[in-house]
Specification:
Layout (H helix, E strand, L loop, with lengths): L2 H15 L5 H13 L17 E2 L5 E5 L7 H4 L7 H12 L20 E5 L12 H17 L5 E5 L1 H14 L16 E2 L6 E5 L4 H4 L6 H16 L5
Parallel strand pairs: 2-3, 2-4, 4-6
Antiparallel strand pairs: 1-3, 5-6
Helix pairs in contact: 1-5, 4-8, 5-6
């Protein structure tokens, strides 16, 4: 990544953090940050949109749904400080993408190598359910982010929402024909399109999935290793 691209990525981060496009999301994220959860009452919540995080030279981009109200909305870093993040970062560590298996706060020394983590929606939504309008208002940030992360070859989509968002991002880039009917999400689903990163589906590491065994540690490890192998093969075009 060139110095100019790094500056543009930093500028994008500032724009994301300052965003107030969606009144419902702004009101919710700030309400949560004021009222707090009792176990975090002593902490100062971030209460703003969450930028992406990781290695600017990443070949694998992990795309989630949205920040957790008492996770990233509290800590200021995506997937940091919640159960989903605990499961995800442990897997990233086991597969060589992260230097440590836990992510508790933004200054805990966690570093990613070869991976970047982002979300389709950058603000914590009520009930973890963004509206279509909120999704569409946020997708231009993900599009610009992907364009600046020029080495990305594989996008790991955590859940059906992220899969759909990734398809919309690729369609918005131009020059990428999305098949009709749209390819369906599934764990392990792969979609290779000309002039685009390869999409790889993964069940979201939510407690609903991990506590029930729908997504296990061996499953996510195998998928992340698959992403690494695909990214190492060169352009997925």
């Amino acid at each position: 990544m060139s110095a100019e691209e790094r500056q543009q990525l930093e500028q994008l981060e500032r724009e994301i953090v300052d965003c107030r496009r969606c009144p419902r999301l702004v009101a919710w994220r700030e309400l949560v940050a004021r009222e707090k959860r009792a176990s975090f009452a002593h902490e100062r919540y971030w209460g703003r949109p969450i930028p992406g995080f990781g290695d600017p030279q990443a070949r694998v981009l992990v795309l989630g749904l949205a920040p957790a109200a008492h996770g990233a909305n509290r800590t200021g870093r995506i997937f940091t400080g919640d159960r989903s993040g605990d499961f995800l970062f442990a897997a990233l560590h086991r597969t060589g993408f992260a230097n440590q298996p836990v992510s508790r706060r933004a200054d805990d020394g966690l570093r990613l190598t070869g991976a970047w983590i982002s979300a389709a929606v950058r603000c914590a939504p009520p009930a973890n359910k963004p509206t279509p309008a909120e999704r569409d208002a946020c997708l231009p940030y993900a599009l610009r982010e992907l364009e600046l992360l020029v080495d990305v070859r594989v996008v790991v989509c955590l859940g059906a929402f992220a899969w759909d968002a990734a398809l919309r991002i690729l369609a918005a880039r131009g020059g990428v024909a999305i098949p009709r009917p749209r390819p369906r999400f599934g764990h392990g689903a792969e979609l290779a399109l000309p002039a685009a990163p390869l999409l790889l589906g993964c069940f979201h590491p939510s407690q609903q999935n991990t506590f029930t065994g729908k997504l296990t540690a061996p499953m996510i490890d195998a998928l992340l290793l698959r992403a690494r192998a695909l990214a190492a093969c060169g352009d997925s075009a």
